[in-house]
Amino acid sequence: MTSQFGVMRAPQSIVFGNGQRRALGQAVARLGKRTLVCTDQRFAASTEMAEMLADLAACGVEARLFSGTLAELPASSIDECVESCGNFRPDVVVGVGGGSCMDMAKLVSLLLTHGGPLDRFYGEFKVPGPIIPVVAIPTTAGTGSEATPVAVLGDSKRDLKVGISSPYLIPHTAICDAELTLTCPPGLTALSGADALTHAIEAYTAVRHPVSAGLSQERVFVGKNLFSDQHALAAIKAIFEYLPRAMADGSDLEARGMLMFASLSAGLAFGTAGTAAAHAIQYPVGALTHTAHGLGVACLLPYVMAYNAGAVTPELAAIGTAIGCKGDDPVELAMGAIRRTRSLCEDIGIPRTLADLGLPEEKLGWVSEQSMLSARLINNNPRKLGVDDVAHIVRNAHAGVH
User: Are the C-beta atoms of residues 148 and 134 closer than 8 Å to each other?
Assistant: First the structure.
C-alpha cells in the first residue's frame, strides 16, 4: 500500500492569476506600514515596478527599494541590502524577481530579525524563530522560491553555493502573476522550466524515509510523501505540455500561466520532499563552469534518472504515463519517461553533456568528491550513493553515455 504519510508546508496565502500583482498593496498593508522591496536593476526600471510602488503608496505603505540583487546571490550583496536599510526597520520584506530576488528577501528578513553572520544559519533548522513576513512575487517560472523553506546564496569563502533551510523562511504570501513572465526571453524560459522540471522529478523520485512521529520535526525535507507527489506530478505534466508552447510563442499567456503553476507546484513538492543527486552534483559543476543552476541540473537530470531507474521504476512509470507514454510494462514506461525527458531538454537547448557545459575532464574526480559534501541531497537520492557511484554518474554525464 502506498504510504499515507504526508507533510504540507506552504505560504499562509497564495494568490495566483493574471494581474494579481495589483493585490500587492493590500496584501502588504495587512502586515505593516513599511516595506523593503528587493529586486534587480532590470525589474527596478520596469513599468510594472513603478505601478507596484504606486500601489503600495496608495495603500498607505512606505516603501524603500533595493535594486542591487545579483544573479547567484553573493553574500556580499545581502549584507549591502541590510546595510542600506539603516534605521528604516521594515515590517514586511517583498522579493520581486527570479529566485535570487526572492531568496534575497528571505535572507535579508532573516538578518534583520535575528542578526548575522549568515553562516551560522547554514544547513537545516538553524533559524531560531519567525522572521519579518516576506511577500514573494516571481517574475520567472522556475525556482518555486515563493513557496519553499530554502534560500541559496553564493559564499565566496567556500567557492560554492550554500543553503539555509527552515520552515520559518517560507514566505508569508506568494503572489503569482504570469503576466510578469511575458518578457522572459526563450533562453531564460527554457532554463526556468528545466529547473522546475528537475525539482518536480527529483521530488517525485526522492527516497521514502521510514515514517516516524519525529520525521517532520527533525527534517526540513522529509522525502517522498503523499502531498509532494500530487504537486510534483502536476508540475511534470504541465511542463511537458506547455514549455514547448511558451518557447515557440512567448506571448502565449495560457502557456505562461501553466508554467508558473508548474513552478509553484514543483516548489511545493520539493519544499517538503527535497531534491537529490542532480542538485548535489550541479553545485560543484556550476562553481567550475560558471553556468546557470537550471542549465546544470537539467543537463544532469536524465543521467541521474537512468542511474536511479532500478530503484524507482514505479515512480518513473507513473511519470511516463503522465506525459503520454503508452503501454502497460512499468520498465518500458520508465525508460520512456527518461527518453522523453532527455528529448525535451535537448529540444529547449539544454547541453547534452557536462563536456558541452564546459567541465574539464580532469575535474571529474573533484566534482564527485565535492558532490558528496551535499549530504542532505545525496542522502535524499532513492538509490544509495557513494563517491564511486557519483563518479559513475559524472563520467556518464560528461561522455554522454546513457
Answer: no
**Residue 102: C-alpha distances to residues 26, 175, 211, 240, 386 (Å):** 19, 12, 32, 25, 33
What is the pTM (predicted TM-score) of this model? 0.96
* Cα–Cα distance, 370 to 372 (Å, whole number): 5
Fold of 13-181: Rossmann fold (3.40.50)
Grid cell locating 189: 524560459
Residues 324 and 340: their CA atoms lie apart, in Å, by 10
CA distances from 55 to 85, 105, 240 (A): 21, 19, 36
Report domain 186-399's class.
mainly alpha
236-258 pLDDT, tens per residue? 999 999 999 999 999 999 999 99
| Count of CB atoms situated within 10 Å of the CB of 394 | 25
Report in angstroms the alpha-carbon separations of 38 from 81, 288, 301: 8, 28, 31
Dmax (CA) for the chain in angstroms is 64
Q: Is-contact 273 225, C-beta < 8 A?
A: yes
Domain residue ranges of the chain, discontinuous segments joined by +: 13-181, 186-399
